[in-house]
Amino acid sequence: MSVHSTMLAASVGQPKSRLKGLMTGWNAVGVVLLVVTLGISLWRVASTERQLYAGDVAVVRVSHWQLELGYRQALQRLMDDYNALQDERFKRGEIPKKVQVIQLPVSEKTYGQLINTNLIAHTAPDIIEMGMTRMISGGYKAEYFVNISGLAEQPNPYNAPQYLDPQLDEETRKALPLMPWRDTFLDGMIGGFDRDLQGYYAVCTTFAPGGRLAVNVDLVRAATGSDKLPTTLGELLDTCAKLRAYGKQTGREMWPIAATRYNTNNWHSMVAPFLRESQRPLDTDRDGAVSIHEFLTASQKGVWSFSDPAMADLVAATRALSAEFPNGFTAMDRDAAMFLFTQQQSAFFQCGAWDAGTVYRLAQGKFKVAIMGNVMPGEGEKWGPKYPVNEASMTAACSYGLYKLSPNLDVAVDFLRFWTSHAQNQRFNQEADWVPCIVGTKLTDNMKAFTPRIAGVYGGSGWLPTWEGEQIRLTLEGQMLGVQTGEITHAMMAEKMRAAVADPDYGAPKVFQRGDELSRDQLRASERSIGTQALLRLLAPARAGSESNYRAVVSTQSQGLNGMVNESLRRCAERELPKPATQTGDAK
User: What pTM does this model have?
Assistant: First the structure.
């Protein structure tokens, strides 16, 4: 062999020897792991594709963003029971295909984008939790989701006698199988009713009262020497002061109330208790609340302003409570606040019913937890006495809509009926530590503190109705956020709000204009709905809406005063509101 051929052979063989050298030791292990990982990934993708698109199985996908501890587990048990029931029906030949219901839990940070993308691509899940995106509202809702108004009038087959809880009282046991589906909900299914579209477009599965405080009873006892929980705002602030002192004694930083960015609007719960008396003269139509038109008319005429003493008290109470929150709470998420609470750096945790299951599970074996309501100033206390807002008008939550293009729409409807039957809704919510929403259901002992409160002040934030004026609302929320963090005083806020209301481009004049336009548009929509329903009754009775929906649209139209409802309210307010004491002349 020549020297040239020897060198050529050596050059050709060199890469082989180098590759062989690289495939030794940990490099070989890495390559094997990579190949195994890719294989498993491909297998998972293929199995998921077979699971979702198998022609011999009716697959129903349920998407939601409820990642709290207990919820997914309770939902999976519900799905397993439903799938097993459908397997039995398939074996008996009652249904043509096997059925499999699966859940698709998604973080709320990406839920909106996921739903938007799939709605546009016509690949959306069969059952979708409503919220987190504007494509689940207004005209989009009518385009993508099923109007279940007709189904709501029919009984729920899973409330038949054989499915009911044996411990259910006799009267409810007889009534449930005959009741329309919507009447089996404690709120009459209003949580799934769309007033603009005049139809039921979603099914709620739970109640979600907020405005509660989870309490580390052991930590409160250590700081105060007593297990007694605060019953007034004054007692709560006193307990917080003792907690801070206890933290200094034990050498650890203590933030009495673990709050998050979701609590930046906690002052809303104090609006009606603090402002209703000072704003009663503004309620010129005597409906028990102040409309945006009554409110802005009074502000423009000087009858009420943000300098009002009652508003000063609201600001002071808001600041006093928010001072007990952690520094930077406006940027904290629930996980961060939950961490402070479970690490016992906070004795109170601002929570709703959706957090309770997680709180109980994380605290198990560490400390005793109790749930108490948000408190108001008591008799003899500063700013008191005040009474909390009642929750009698609360509607059910966690609503799920049916995607119009679902290939297994009948199964999706059937599963929602199963989920909202008496026995299954009670069991699901009890297992998840949530609040059931069906007539005759019971709460667990842990959740009894979340029973909707029916005593107290009516109206909520209806005594400061700035949400209908977008720029005014944004200004108020920004100012109150500054109040909570201690950056803005009451005087500063009052001046800023005066300017916002008087602004000719974005203030009261714009709100009145937009209100009139919206009322006219709504009334025209009602007229079109009435005409459509009347035509359907003549040409296709089976497609016409229910009699109750028809009456509701007609009633809405009749109350609209031919498109001039807002103008009439404004004239009424201008006529009846008293003039300020500093002005002269009669009020006409």
Answer: 0.76
